[in-house]
Queue: 4 jobs
Job 1
Amino acid sequence: MTRTVWLTPHAHEQLRAELAALRAAGPGDELDDPAGLRHRQRVRELEDLLARAVVGEDPPDDGVAEPGMVLTVRYTDGGADDTETFLLGTRAAGREDLEICSPESPLGSALIGARPGEQRTYQAPNGRTFHVTLLTAVPYGHHRAG
């Protein structure tokens, strides 16, 4: 399944510049060279990311959790004050003003499609199960303006 990646214009430009620099440098000629392999993998990763990117467009303000939305959640396994607000997006989104949660992470994938008030369950990499309730989901641009 191909997922759209939400990027700010700044992050999109940074990734394009990184890709251009990697292409200009070229990988090592040796097929078994670890540095050349990492170089080629990063080029493929950036090409894939940029091909799936939606740049600078806020998702609809419909309260549904999806990439590009700022989510506030409550972890119901903890106390009533155990809330967190983060941008559902990739680290490449380049936001320093908010924590970022990847849509591919256990938490992010559990929240995709959730509406305020819905509880979702996810399993952390350590095997522990968590319950989280979506409190709000607003487009990043609306969060930023608020």
Job 2
Amino acid sequence: MTETASHGPLTGLRVLEIGHFVAAPFCTRVLGDLGADIIKIEPPAGDPVRQWGAQIDGNSLWWSIHGRNKRSVTVNLKAPGASDLVLALAARCDAVVENFRPGQLERLGLGDAIMRSARPDLVIAHISGYGQDGPYRDRAAFGVIGEAIGGLRYLTDHEPGTTDLPPVRVGVSIGDSLAGLYAAFGIVSAVWQRDRAAGDGKGRTMDVALSEAVLSMTEGMLPEYAALGKVRQPTGSRIPTAAPSSAYPCSDGKWILIAANSEPLFARLSRLIGRPELPQEQRFANNRMRVANVVELDELIGSWTRSLPVDQIERKLNDADIPSTRVYSAAECAADPQFRHRGMVREVDDRLFGKVLHLGIVPHVPDDPGKIRWAGPAVGEHTDEVLSDILGMQPAEIAAMRREGVI
């Protein structure tokens, strides 16, 4: 890296991303936010995600976040000599992350053994739909497929019998993002094991499957099925193991989330809605009974919330110290004082859009916080810089590679 200042706890870590769409790029965004130097290999036409989402003058606002803190280097991976260039970069990186179909990089001359011939202790993270082996290895998959086969799309649906609409999507590319987070955790773990005091100096391979990343989040779903034959069912807005904990309609068309599922909280909520006797009734005497009678309980709470606008309900619930919040839209997230105070919603300079709102950095590390050094770069914006600074190539060499269609 040419910079020496700290940009977070991963400053000094260099990661080569050979990724596209969401999963691998999400992994490197997390690492880059915490200070890692991310070298993103893109085809000359750019990552397809540059065309996703809302755009201004043909430029994706999504890319402003998706590509931030990354140095974009264009490489035509199918061109003669391209694999040698990528190998030279891999030799100067701590880790490589990719999310092509299993075997595709090997066919391009960039298999694990070849990359480790360039750097034996290289950490390599593969992200794919189903993993690098097994009967589904070669199946096509995106995040939504992982969400379905991993059980999440079943659980996020409405309650059985309430609608014949298709199972509800979470609303973001959660399967891709989960896989990216697992890959980031795996990379940091492998580098720590390799480099720590008396470390073994070995490279390691991470094999992250979208389907497995999703399935790993399903709590007690599998043991309940194995031991009891119980198939966990979607519960809509409710939590199947605690009550009351749901979204309730307000008089102004907004929704309020109320989670008053402990005994003291339920007692306070009962007083607040004008029904202080509810905790003494057998049907609501404890959490187990409240779960069993949740439909009736939610009707009682909903009759109160329907009588008031969300501002008043939220104020009353906060005054009573009951966990609650209105259901936020993008506008409410953007204006929230807590998010603003902690920098989770912040203004960032973007060369295309001027000031634009970005998501902040998670985790927050007070002693060495991460930093948004720049928004998503132009396609190939850093090609010459990276080839010059990292590989020591001269302008004439770079120009020749450009003429040959390698970069």
Job 3
Amino acid sequence: MKVAAIQMVSEISVDRNLAQAHRLLDQAAAAGAELAVLPEYFCFMGRSDRDKLLLAETPGLGTVQDFLSDTARELGLWIVGGTLPMATDDPEHAANASMVYDPRGKVAARYDKIHLFRYDNGRERYDEAAALVAGEQPTAFTLKDRSGQDWRVGLSVCYDLRFPELYRQLAADILVVPSAFTYTTGQAHWEVLLRARAIENQAFVIASAQGGLHENGRHTWGQTLVVDPWGAILGQHAVGAGLVVCELERERLQSVRQQLPALQHRRL
């Protein structure tokens, strides 16, 4: 199955972001991808964290959800819609939700980011909990590819990458990690964490990133990757908007798991 990991440098304008996302998704479909993964905050990078509250959508109603549904149906793609802000019972906090749409444009899954990023090195400061509420439920879904094979796809977002226990619970064939890693933390930890999650779970990893200098002044690391179950990088896009298209082979997944049956050897 061919998959596409999409990298963006999202702006403040939702319309421009959606137009850019559509161009990249169209390229993914033209390359034969069946699954495309957009980055975290693909639809909006505001001037402040609280700006996203103004755009929070309710389930089944909103510009971004309509875009994802319509584009999945138009292009015949499974789309993991990065993340978008979804309304909660608390008007001061949104959920950072990853919405999945099948090729008919129907919602296949929703995952709300569980682990909220906080970082302060004296020069950069981030605290997602100021505007977001944490999710509670690990989420995976089954994707049937065009050949009729089933793939279990586990959902995660960005900072979740640092919590391996989440990925153990997902028990997936493919792990997706839409992200907006900062330049500082990405340079230090992005690739090594992604390869570790692939190796220890013997799963493919699709990590779609924000990558560049944004209109709001934020600098994201980029380096969108697809990793195989042995930890080998199958494709990578460094900086700026673009995409990586790779073939995920079921035989490779089975071979790694048979030759080194670490998942069967777990004791804890």
Job 4
Amino acid sequence: MTYDLYIGDRTYSSWSLRGWLMFEKFGLPVRTHMIRLFTGNMAEQMAALAPARLVPCMKTPDGLIVGETLAMAESLTERHPEAGLWPADPAARALARWLCAEMHASFTALRSACPMQLVCQYPDFAPSDDVRTDLDRISTLWALARDRHGANGPWLFGDYSVADAFYAPVAARIAGYGLDVDATAQAYVATTLADPAFRRWRAQGLTVRYDPDPFPTDLTAAPWPGPTPLSAKPVSEGPSENALCPYSGKPVTDFLDLDGRVFGFCNPGCRDKTVIDPEAFPAFMALVDRSH
């Protein structure tokens, strides 16, 4: 019983990140399909998914098309009540739904001025008064959730919930534009950037290069502010410590070097995403530890 999830380009599609995290963080079975956002034929790519016209959207195992992340969240909750997408406590659950609804409908100044990009940080970005108003409201909502319901963990409601999936792109915007927020909000941003699932999404996105940049800017770029990845590099040949790809189990054809050790993968994509952030991929790190 596997879902099909249709997403946009990972480096830039904030809504797709939300949809993907709802599957990834709650262990729901899914096949991911890419809808390229910058090719000029998005409508054609989406034609078979009508009436959906935007990403993300999902197709359920019984063939139902569901668009919009709020609708996806509720549909997944109905179908998988055991997964715990929403907080179990009724008061926390009500607030989490409120936060998600406000995210879905608000913060247009922040979204317009700071389109999500996971490539770098623009530390010289100067937020407008409207962007600052959005940031203040976001900080208020995050502090409210953390103060009332966040004692048992680092996420908005302690344990990870749909609310964290919804606000992951907001955390990415704050990080990507070096926006000034209070200590509680900054700690939450750091938690999001360090999350292995978020890091996997970003690493997979950075395997694709864009020319021209979809969101060109004259701002000075600085390194991405998330955790510093292990230093890996692609190499042209083996032999590798492993004969089979840690992801697919297929014979290796492409290689990387990590601290003088060579590991193999079944295709350049598997290799390249791992080069970008090795620690984001538990299957690879298990291989590193097992082979050591």
